[in-house]
Write a structure and sequence with these properties.
Blueprint: H1 20-45, H2 60-67, E1 75-77, H3 83-88, H4 93-100, H5 133-148, E2 154-159, H6 166-177, E3 182-188, E4 191-192, E5 195-196, H7 197-200, H8 207-210, E6 216-220, H9 224-239, E7 245-250, H10 262-265, H11 273-280, H12 284-294, H13 300-323, H14 332-336
Parallel strand pairs: 1-2, 2-3, 3-7, 6-7
Antiparallel strand pairs: 4-5
Helix pairs in contact: 1-2, 1-12, 1-13, 2-9, 4-13, 5-6
The protein binds thiamine diphosphate.
Length: about 350
């Protein structure tokens, strides 16, 4: 359901397909996110994880389709639902798993947990528990990239709930004014916690960008090819100095807002089983698998091999996390604050 780009395209032709090797990477990226999160779902239910996890199951095509165009030098900011962004951007699965398990082998030495997975060396500027906070961080990074002048792009993933934060208007304004290489990616999954988007969100989300003349693309966020195409165009625009872009990806989260939400909600429910089932039928991985096989890009056996290798990686990451040492609370102060600047000589 692409409703089209709002401006003259500078990038990939409508209908362009990812080349075969890229298509297989997209598939692998989505399957890795899914299998990691299924383990997190199960281990959370078994009470093995020290904190809450917000899962991305059903939304994998957005992270995979966008991050396929990014390298380690590019930036991405994430949300409280950030495991998919971390993995798709090239974060290490073992280090992320250990982080979520609260182990010192974790990417933030187990001090951050699920909502703060980050790896600056790969341009992963962090998951973030503050809704909308990634918008200003990504825009700041884009400002830095523009000053560096070396073609880096900066992506901000955020939800439909975050689209109601004032900071979106501020960052759209500055990025349009200064033509910053930032790509706003709204993952519109229809809910803000337990509230349907329609009850808290006025108007059409992409129109917020239209007001600043920022080019927009509205895509089916469960179709990785559509996301990949729109993101390719936006990243190219950013690298060529063409300024910001806005992608609204319509998707759905299959799991709850966070695992164990049923203990908060009691017997109440904010969505119907048949709605969830309808979206299960639009599963981005199953759809892409069918497309790869029916187009002859890959055989079912090729994809089964990828599936099996991913399962091995996930099992290895869980074993690594389980065997790790608990985080050291004594590090809290040293890890939290940057060292004081040396005193200036009189
Ligand atoms: C500034 C701020 N306000 C409120 C919250 C509480 N909160 C956590 S997640 C969430 C919903 C976010 O919805 P959305 O941006 O659509 O992301 P989704 O959970 O759907 O991925 C809210 C309101 C918060 N963490 N930060």
């Amino acid at each position: 359901m692409t409703t089209g780009l709002d401006v003259t395209s500078t990038g990939s032709r409508p209908g362009a397909e990812p080349p075969p090797a890229e298509a297989l990477r997209l598939y692998e990226s989505m399957v890795l996110i899914r299998r990691v999160e299924e383990r997190l779902r199960d281990d959370s239910a078994a009470g093995k994880l020290p904190g809450a996890v917000h899962l991305y199951i059903g939304e994998e095509a957005v992270a995979a389709g966008v991050c396929a165009h990014l390298g380690d030098r590019d930036y991405a900011t994430s949300t409280h639902r950030g495991h998919g962004h971390f993995l798709a951007k090239g974060g290490d699965v073992r280090a992320m798993m250990a982080e979520i398990w609260g182990k010192r082998e974790g990417i933030c030495r187990g001090m951050g947990g699920s909502m703060h997975v980050a790896d600056i060396s790969k341009g992963i500027l962090g998951a973030n528990g503050i809704v909308g906070a990634g918008l200003s961080i990504a825009t700041g990074a884009a400002f830095g990239a523009k000053l560096d002048g070396d073609g880096k792009a900066s992506v901000c993933f955020f939800g439909d709930g975050a689209s109601n934060q004032g900071v979106l208007m501020e960052t759209l304004n500055l990025s349009a004014l200064w033509q910053l290489p930032v790509i706003f990616v709204c993952e519109n999954n229809g809910f803000s916690e337990f509230t349907p988007s329609a009850e808290v969100t006025a108007g059409h989300i992409a129109d917020r960008a239209r007001a600043f003349a920022v080019p927009i693309a509205e895509v089916d966020g469960n179709d990785v090819t559509e996301v990949w195409r729109a993101a390719g165009e936006a990243v190219r625009r950013a690298r060529e100095g063409g300024g910001p872009s806005f992608i609204e990806a319509r998707t759905y989260r299959i799991q709850g807002h966070f695992e164990a939400e049923k203990f908060v909600l009691g017997t109440g429910s904010y969505r119907q089983e048949d709605e969830i089932e309808t979206w299960r039928q639009r599963d981005p991985i199953a759809r892409f698998r069918l497309r790869l096989v029916s187009s002859g890009t890959a055989s079912a056996a090729d994809l089964d091999r990828i599936d099996a290798a991913v399962l091995d990686r996930v099992a290895d990451a869980v074993a690594y996390a389980e065997a790790g040492e608990p985080a050291d609370p004594g590090l809290a102060e040293t890890l939290m604050f940057a060292p004081a600047a040396p005193a200036e000589e009189a």
